[in-house]
């Protein structure tokens, strides 16, 4: 941070009653949520849920039909020096093909009135210094993503907004991105990142905002959102005597579902109880595992039936 005078709400994002009506589609519908500084917030939703439209409204790239979005209490359009407040990575970075990475950043610095040395600093920040003088057309997808982030960091912004930054990255790239974004949040910055990679989000995000069909479904710390699900842990059971075990478990008030592989998913009782019931019924077990709810399961339950066909 270059400025020690900032108040804690400087980096807060507030979305209030945001709505976007395209001709036939209500892409975003009366959406309200807040995003706090010092945390990574995952912005999740099925395809077509309205994530990109929301982020674009935040950045004044799309005009809302109703509602307002503010960053540190001000609309993006009202920020005097937006690049110093907000960095955004909306799609895999594009740059002039024949331009080197460093020159790409210097051009942005010049246009935004930022000191030239910020280009070198931002490139170093994302680990691209060794490729500074290589031409953009020779960059891998992962390098392009890093360059996009470097561009977003030029103004040393308090708030970072990224749309699907892990798209197309290899596992090493995803791991780097995770560490980088967590580091930014630890410095007190606000990091809002949309993604459909739920297992990655569980590792990355402190908070989540889940939307579906343009509306808020759930918001809160990841652990709380997972813990709020009515259905807690389940027990996965594989057995060649599924019918006999199902009957015995139901007699103990357990719930039993069967997945496509024929594995029993048992609720309302714990694994030792399932083992005891199986032993008493003379049922052979091939697997007995406690399965705790994860973000993916919670997401699928919360957004079931609210798919993108609108
Ligand atoms: N410019 C536009 N004109 C008309 N409809 C649009 C426009 N942009 C988005 N939409 C529609 O608005 C809805 C929300 O789209 P949006 O891209 O915001 O969703 P998303 O959550 O980002 O989806 P994805 O995960 O697939 O990128 C979709 O039904 C989409 O087809």
Automatic annotation (TrEMBL):
Coiled coil: none
KW Nucleus (keyword) present: no
Listed name of the protein: ABC-2 type transport system ATP-binding protein
Domain ABC transporter: 13-238
UniProt superkingdom: Bacteria
Residues annotated as transmembrane: none
GO terms assigned for molecular function: ATP binding; ATP hydrolysis activity
Family in the record: Belongs to the ABC transporter superfamily.
PANTHER family according to UniProt: ABC TRANSPORTER, ATP-BINDING PROTEIN (PTHR43335:SF4)
Record keywords: ATP-binding, Nucleotide-binding, Transport
